[in-house]
Amino acid sequence: MGLLDDLDRGLLDLVFPRDCAVTQLPMDDGELLHLSPAGCAALPRILDPRCLTCGHPFDGWLEGERSCPHCMELHPAFNRAVCPFQAKGPVRRILHRIKYERAPYLADDLVAVAAQDEPFRRHLAGSILVPVPLHADKAWSRGYNQSERLAERLTHLIPGCTVSLLIEKHKPTESQTRLDRTRRLRNVGKAFRMKAGLSVDPDQRYVVIDDVLTTGATLHACAQVLRAAGATAVDAAALAHG
């Protein structure tokens, strides 16, 4: 664990006591450093029924065929994606802090809570986790790749998981945040490739890992790279959907 990860820990806690990232109330001693029990309870979960392709909750659409508007036009290269949280409220705020406010340490607690979600655990168990890569320039300016951090933490919490950095982002792209589905697909369509000298094992199951699944375009693009390299079982997962 690096120095930046410890800025609000140890002796500094005596001077600047930690507050829960959700409730903003002082933290009591416990296993988690930045999420209190009340904060964990406030995180919006995804429960069944959910889309069996992209993992989005059906929100009560129980009549007739369950066609999911979030992925029905994507035809994803991954078989299934599972997400434990909805990307709204406190989850969205925490993910924003992780990605844009140099707070990667918040990922550890969010992953710990996510790993308690049984469908999420089953989905990842025994798989090779492949984090969505950042372009080298973005990785340098940010100082870390949040998807790599998520994947590494998951290997400590879910049985049989390993991490393999198989994919690189060789082409910079604009932020996906304000793009619609079509433009997102076009934006990342040819941005990823296998790292030179690396290969996949067709007998293994790979799960592409990202922080958020919105349209699924990024996870789809990375899954395409693994499929083209010979992977036969490719899934996806993110901490949040929305």
Q: How would you describe the overall organization of this protein?
A:
This protein is an alpha/beta fold and 242 residues long. It has a single domain, classed as Rossmann fold (3-Layer(aba) Sandwich). Helix content is 31%, strand content 14%. It has nine helices and eight strands. The strands form two sheets. Strands 1, 2, 3, 4, 7 and 8 form a six-stranded parallel beta sheet that branches. The protein has a two-stranded antiparallel ribbon with strand order 5-6. Helix 9 links the parallel strand 7 and strand 8. It is globular and about 50 Å long. The two termini are 30 Å apart. The relative contact order is 0.16.
Could you name the key traits of this structure?
242 residues; 6-stranded parallel β-sheet; globular; alpha/beta; disordered N terminus; two-stranded antiparallel sheet; Rossmann fold
Mean pLDDT: 88
- What is the CATH topology assignment? Rossmann fold
Mind describing the biggest β-sheet?
A: 6 strands, parallel
CATH architecture: 3-Layer(aba) Sandwich
- The percentage helix is 25-40%
N/C terminus separation? 30 Å
Domain count: 1
Roughly how many Å is the radius of gyration?
A: 18 Å
Give the count of helical stretches.
9
Provide the low-confidence segments as ranges.
Answer: 1-8
Q: What is the CATH domain class? A: Alpha Beta
The secondary structure category is alpha/beta
Tell how many strands the DSSP assignment holds. Answer: 8
Query: Per DSSP, what share of the residues sits in E-state strands of 2 or more residues?
Result: 5-15%
Q: What sequence of helices (H) and strands (E) makes up the elements?
A: HHEEHHHEHHEEHEEHE
Overall 3D geometry? globular
